[in-house]
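Posting this for the archive.
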Amino acid sequence: MKEILEKIAVFADEAHGDQVRKYADERYIQHPLRVMKACHDRGYSLPVLAAAILHDVLEDTDKSREEIKEFLLTVMEETDTDHTLALVIELTDVYTKDNYPRLNRRKRKAKEINRLGMVSAEAQTIKYADIIDNAIGIAGNDTDFGPVFLKECEALLNKMQNGDPVLHDAAKAVIKKEMEELNSHHLHS
């Protein structure tokens, strides 16, 4: 399994190209690898771990569903490939600015939150790990966007109740900690 995941990580890294993390000086691939590790530590299967690595590829790169499937079939059985791709599709934003230019961010995010409340427990679990990795440290890095992002994450966690309970609780704890840090930051400025 480790070898397969390494090949998937290379594919994702190449797909993300020169993208870097917003608040960290690191290649983008480090984020999906941490998301995958959180799911791995909870004992999830290969398709879930593969989807964790690939969760942003459809949304943030020019790779198509077909290209991802074609690649996955070179490293996984077809049933695992289909399972992985289904999770990646569930995790890919539908209510984007491009698709819904008339809706503002708040309305798009509200629709996205409702949609994610209905995705599979495995997709929700990956999203919990994604929220944890994205939220850690945001209070210290972005006092303008941080509160907006954290409130969106909180609303998302309130809607998504079906995934791994340990990761759900961990995500809620990170959001709470970051909000407290933002609040104390505002009190002292």
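The radius of gyration is 17 Å. The chain has a mean pLDDT of 94.
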